[in-house]
Every structure is written in structure tokens, then in C-alpha cells.
Backbone:
């Protein structure tokens, strides 16, 4: 009986590691969304350190939802895709490397003044 339970648990555990399908969100969109989420986290952390009114209001989650809406994806699609990439380490590394290179390009882009 113990062996049967062990085999069933092993089977269900193996099913969780097998990916059936492709990521829901395309790679370029995912790259952009991850970069924007990282930027929003950075912004939220910087602002919340100086503005104590933001603490506990979960404004960062609201920013996440806005990013998802701007990129026309749902939070479920994003998290399903990120889960897919985490189960495929080589693809996940490619995603993170591309986000890193995007951030380097962004930092090298000169900032234009708003006032002319």
C-alpha cells in the first residue's frame, strides 16, 4: 500500500514538471512586461521610502495591473508564462538576459528635457 501511494505521488509530481504547450505571452511582449514591472518596483520602493502614506496601500499591485492592461495581457497569462519560463531554465535565462540588455540600452538613452 505504501508503494502504491508513493508511486501515485511520484506520478503527480512528475506531471507538474512536464510542460505541455508553449508560453501564453510572446517573448517580445514578455520581455517588455518584465522590464516595466522591474521599473515599477524600483519606482514604488523609492517613493514608498519617502512617502509613508503609501505603505500598506498596495499601490505596486495597481501599477502591475496598469502594466498588464497597457500590454493587453492578463495577470493570469503573465504568471502562467513566467511559470513556463521557470520550468525551462535556458529560456528563462534568455528572457532575463534580454531584459538585462534592454535595461542597459535604456540607461544609455539620453533623457530629453521636458521643457524646451
Residues:
Amino acid at each position: 500500500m505504501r508503494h502504491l501511494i508513493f508511486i501515485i505521488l511520484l506520478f503527480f509530481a512528475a506531471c507538474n514538471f512536464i510542460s505541455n504547450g508553449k508560453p501564453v505571452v510572446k517573448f517580445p511582449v514578455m520581455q517588455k512586461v518584465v522590464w516595466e514591472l522591474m521599473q515599477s518596483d524600483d519606482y514604488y520602493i523609492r517613493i514608498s521610502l519617502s512617502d509613508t502614506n503609501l505603505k500598506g496601500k498596495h499601490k505596486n499591485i495597481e501599477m502591475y495591473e496598469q502594466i498588464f492592461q497597457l500590454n493587453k495581457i492578463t495577470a493570469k497569462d503573465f504568471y502562467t508564462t513566467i511559470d513556463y519560463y521557470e520550468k525551462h531554465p535556458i529560456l528563462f535565462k534568455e528572457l532575463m538576459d534580454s531584459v538585462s540588455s534592454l535595461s542597459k540600452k535604456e540607461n544609455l538613452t539620453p533623457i530629453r528635457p521636458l521643457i524646451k
Remarks:
- The chain has one domain: 22-106.
- The chain has five helices and no strands.
- The first helix runs from residue 2 to 17.
- Confidence is low (pLDDT under 50) at residues 6-13.
